[in-house]
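Dear colleague,

Thank you for sharing your sequence with our group. We've completed the structure prediction you requested, and as agreed, I am returning the results in plain text so they can be pasted directly into your records. Please verify that the sequence below matches your submission; if there's any discrepancy, let me know and we will rerun it promptly.
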Amino acid sequence: MASPYRSEPAAVAHGPRPVPGEQRRTARRRTVPAWAYALPPVAALGLVFLYPLALVGWQSVSPDGGGHSVAAYGDVLGQASFRDALWNTVVIAVGATAGCLVLGFALALVIAFVPFPGAKAVGRFIDIFLAFPSFLITLALLFIYGSAGMANGLWTDATGAASGPFDFLHTPYGVLLTEITYFTPFVMRPLLAAFSQVETGQLEAAASLGARPARIVRQVILPEALPSLAAGGSLVLVMCLNEFGIVLFTGAKDVTTLPVLVYSKAILDGDYTGACVVAVVSIALSAALYGLYRVLVARTVTAAGGARHARA
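Please find the predicted structure tokens below.
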């Protein structure tokens, strides 16, 4: 009598046997370390991004007379033009970032929580606005507030005066206004994404308990927006530090920032070593701000998560 428990053949019980070629390929994959697969993309990134930066750093310690020396750093950092450019860069960047945060937060609140016809179209326009070049916004402001712009033209037509009162675009205030106008959508975009995640039930519950709109914004909406504010503000700050086109197109000759100083030393003065020194300082400043941005975002996300757990 045959046993009811028949054993399957070895090929069926253990699956198909691998062919010798497949065994060799599997063994080869096991012998290649995982980090080796990262070498090609890292090498490509190094060639495209790190190599030019390394050349700039090398040129900053390679004076025209030959050899290598860091004396150019002492010469450039001791110049009054460098200190003025550094001051202008930091002040304009911080002021523009603060203006973008305030204006962007207010506009994003209106678009996200105040129903009005065309709100979605405005949100789509913000996405398109991010692709605009900075000189285009500067040119538009020149058409409006320039010495021969629309605002001055209306004023002279109405009053008969020889010139209009608007003459500020070539000053630091004009650069500040232009940068706020151009970079505000970079704050609004992440804010609108964050506001879309806010539960309307929280807002309705807070309103039913008698909370005023200002208190709802401060205690319900703002904690949700803090990570996006930190991200957008840090991005705008770094971009303002390295902005060149806006300063150039506004015609602000007395406003010298670090990027403008690099251009002046390299193109106008022919001092490539000095230009590279200023560029290295600008790179170091941007890298330091990026590191600060990462720390702030991490702490903000942690604090916001704790606040949400506390409310729950």
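Summary note from our side: The radius of gyration is 29 Å.

Kind regards,
the structure core
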